[in-house]
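lol so apparently i was supposed to do this last week
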Amino acid sequence: MKLTHHHDLARFKRLGLTLSSKLTQTLSLCLGLGLVAFTCSAANDTSAIARGAYLMKIGDCVACHTAVGGRELSGGLPFETPFGAVYSTNITSDKDTGIGKYSYEEFFDAMHHGVGINGNLYPAMPYTSYSLLTDQDTKAIYAYLMNTKPIKQANLDNDVSFPFNMRFGLKAWNLVAHDAKEFTPKEDKSERWNRGNYLVNALGHCAECHTPRDSLFAMEPDKHFQGAIIEGLEASNITSAELNRQNWTHDDLKSLFTEGYSRKGTVFGGMYPVVYHSFSHLTDKDMFAVNSYLLDTDKKIEAKALTFNGHQPKLPGYNLYMGYCAGCHGQNGEGRPNVAPAMAGNSTLDKASPHNVVAVMLKGIKSQHYNTTTSFYAMPAYADQLNDEQLRDLTNYLRVTWSPQPGDLDLNTIKDLKEVIFEHD
Ligand code: HEC
Ligand code: HEC
Ligand code: HEC
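anyway here it is w/ heme C bound
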């Protein structure tokens, strides 16, 4: 996804305004005409439209269906696939260039089976997750979309190479790789857990990044949430076992998903837009449901002290840390408010794979804003300053000093990681 963060935020704020003014218009129109029970019931049901607006946020539709600098939901954002670029389409209510002509049944097919009125859709559109949506929620999203302002903007042609430009090939892909199942609550779990499961897996489509894919690019169901490489970063293992091992609490996840940073570090890469556009808008109740599902418990988890095993000045990584990193991340890795997050207890360090640690050192992170009072500096890129030996020494030092991970990475690990990290540049 080619999104710039500043731009996203500005766009997002605008969206908030448009949604509510549109909604009040429709509301007053329906109420004013006294038609609430009749005409306003199908595509004009105001409570459905309001719910649709919320569901659209949690489903993150705007982020994908709006080009950088483009008008909301009018499409045109490119997605790099292994076969070429696919562009998102205009899903405003315009009858010629948008989806205004879609009947509810046709819309349902697009959302659940990846079949649009012009043929099969590329799975860049996450219908592989949305297929879990309930009929009621699909209707609410439909009601919302049919009440958007029509924008006339023709769709861009995809640059997908032969034979992948043949949409009928996708039909075959669907047969082998897409199992359209309705969401079924687990009976041995609480209502709250099931709600969280639904929000995360259906609307949130978190698995699209966090679940590894097989040779057909289908998500592997038995490796659900075990982590996958996405645009040079690792969309980490977020299984409940791993999140609990790292001592994430409900409050930590809540601050990560509302603020973008927490006691255990910040979100970056593809995770930042997810938080900004989507999960930061969860209601408190839904947020608790999501976190109860992710942690597989709604019982309070005790926050343990943040790991700091003490400095070892004899290790080669010590001087590198003090020279390059301590100015922002703190002498003892305690972090600095409005500058940089703590290394102590940071979940990016506490992972079996050092992938993201090395990626962040090589490529840096653009300055990100977290809310009106908090924004961190940019994390500099050190690709030109640190050689492979130094990267190895630093990574090992960070791991032994601020996490329970061993400091035994060798040069080959760094070299292999570099290949994956720079693969898509
Ligand atoms: C990760 C990016 C992404 C997200 C999130 C996403 N879409 Fe899409 N969507 C796409 C792309 C790309 C296409 C075009 C696929 C193609 O041309 O084969 C598409 C196509 C569609 C279509 C078919 C439209 C047509 O032109 O015939 C509909 C309807 C649609 N999306 C609705 C939604 C809704 C509603 C949401 C939110 C619940 C959503 N999308 C979220 C990427 C996304
Ligand atoms: C100019 C200040 C600055 C310096 C110097 C700096 N960092 Fe960072 N670093 C940051 C900021 C800010 C972030 C978080 C960025 C974000 O996600 O918004 C960060 C994030 C990280 C992360 C990811 C953890 C997380 O929670 O986001 C790691 C790992 C990291 N830095 C390691 C290092 C190492 C190792 C060095 C020295 C080679 C270093 N940093 C030097 C500012 C800095
Ligand atoms: C576009 C790809 C993408 C999507 C979609 C996505 N993530 Fe992520 N996620 C990432 C990447 C990349 C990272 C690693 C960088 C970081 O720590 O922020 C990450 C990190 C995380 C982390 C931090 C893990 C840790 O140990 O530090 C959590 C928790 C998380 N994601 C949860 C979710 C949830 C819940 C959703 C669904 C709402 C989701 N993600 C959707 C890409 C994605």
